[in-house]
Amino acid sequence: MPSLFLRLFGWVIISISAVACATAKAEEVTVAVAANFTAPMQKIAQAFEQDTGHKALLAFGATGKFYAQIKNGAPFAVLLSADDETPARLEKEGVAVVGTRFTYAVGRLALWSKNHSLVDDKGQVLLSNTTDKNGFKKLAIADPRLAPYGAAALEVLDRMGALAKVRPKLVQGDSIGQAFQFVMTENAELGFVALSQISIDGRITQGSAWVVPQNLYTPLKQDAVLLPVGKDNLAALALMKYMRTDRAQTIIRTYGYSL
């Protein structure tokens, strides 16, 4: 019995030591996340913590604002951008770790309204002259100077020949998240949002929407990049790898992104 007790006691000590060691190695990573990627990143962060023990602290906003904050020393370790230009620019300016940049998702733009009958399947509502139940008074977009999805929205309107017509109706949010809120709260009848904000598993969750054909705007390639703060952070390095795992990519696809 004493021998059995000692062996069991030894296993307990080893198990406790292993847990303590794993806990000691677990770290936190502060991540700047493009607003369009809010929902999938929240799920990825949960899975990341379950699988690695590391914790991702997420901040959501417009890519342009994150660029300015990072240039001014904001302590983000990883940037998940809404475009591929901002990470490349940070890398060129020496404010990102060279060789760590990669595309984690390709986004889709959608025209959306909470009104189930307002948006048709070709976006012709944008060319409407009416302001009754078949038209609109306000069209929400993200600020094109700060948010790639806002720039894409202007590109679509221009290619459709609708920009001059709708310009007086435009209301701008700092990010695609704020543009979505304008429509969600019905302060705007419709708006250009990220497909990920209004769909799950390919289904529009509410209202009416037109998924904009990708030939009407420059592809929304979204790049991740490691920032100097994260260069020696185990959690930051682990997250950069985790974004390419099957589990993370399955979540990304669920929200309508391609890879």
How would you concisely characterize the structure shown here?
This protein has 259 residues and is an alpha/beta fold. The chain has helices at residues 2-25, 38-52, 63-71, 85-92, 148-160, 163-166, 176-184, 195-198, 234-242, 246-254, and strands at 28-34, 55-61, 78-80, 102-107, 109-113, 139-142, 170-173, 190-194, 199-200, 203-204, 208-211, 220-226. 42% of the residues are buried.
Q: What characteristics describe this protein?
A:
259 residues; alpha/beta; D-Maltodextrin-Binding Protein, domain 2; 2 domains; 5-stranded mixed sheet; 12 strands; 40% helix
Structural class: alpha/beta
CATH class of the largest domain: Alpha Beta
Question: Which strands sit side by side, in order, in the main sheet?
Answer: 2-1-3-12-4
Low-confidence stretches: 4-24
Tally of discrete structural domains: 2
Total count of strands = 12
Assembly context of the chains: single chain
Name of the CATH superfamily of the largest domain? Periplasmic binding protein-like II
Kindly report the average pLDDT value.
Answer: 90
- Per DSSP, the total helix count is 10
Q: What is the annotated CATH architecture of the largest domain?
A: 3-Layer(aba) Sandwich
Helix content: 40-55%
Shape: globular
Provide the gyration radius in Å.
Answer: 22 Å
Query: Gap between N and C termini, in Å?
Result: 59 Å
Question: SSE order, as H and E?
Answer: HEHEHEHEEEHHEHEHEEEEHH
What CATH calls the topology of the largest domain is: D-Maltodextrin-Binding Protein, domain 2
Q: How can the largest sheet be summarized?
A: 5 strands, mixed
- Sheet-strand content, in percent, reads 15-25%
